[in-house]
Amino acid sequence: MDDKFYKFYALLNYRKKPSDKIPAAHQIEALERLHEWFREQRDMHSGSILVLPTGGGKTFATVRFLCTSPLSKGYKILWLAHTHHLLEQAFHAFESEVKHISLPQTRLDVRVVSGTPGHCSVDEIGKTDNVLIATLQTLTRAYKRKQPKLEAFFNSANDKLFVVFDEAHHSPSPTYRQLIIALQERFPKMYLLGLTATPTYSKKYRYGWLEKLFPQRIVYQVTAQKLMADGILSKPEIEPHETNF
What we know:
alpha/beta, Rossmann fold, eight-stranded mixed sheet, about 20% strand, globular
């Protein structure tokens, strides 16, 4: 069943399809580090950041990791982003990767929630949803008012919640960090993975919050210059132009 930005995957059918995406060398390294981080046992919540430059394949690497590890272990995924473009990019990325979810999982429900036309509303969230991809604004408002469908989703996770925060350098913003802290208190064993190309913050007090939210800091990082040298990214050509400024 496909309805708006919701999709149900019958995994037995998708596992029969051949793999069509091969990770690049830097993505293989990132995946290895992510799996190691996920397997580590800690007494506190786990929070780390994946740093890849724009065009480096953050979304693909993250979705491949989620399918091969957390989703295969029965985790619920909450994917948070700022724009509907980022939500839809994540939604479509699962299409090629769900074949990597192992038994005993037999189905995957993926839903996009925001105020954008064509996306699902908060009232359409199902407790059987495995991956909930939502804007920070919509999720924050719904969580504050304890929206019943969202509460049912969280309750169904038990202690297995994995949160992805796209553009993680925005997470120290007071509204967003309050949401993350509330979820960490509710789910002491929660995993938090931040995605960003710029793991810094111009205001020093907010950078301190970045370290508190992601105590394991950077799980993997590669520079744009390295990917240019490897032929993954194109080198920019800069042409000078006269202006009136």
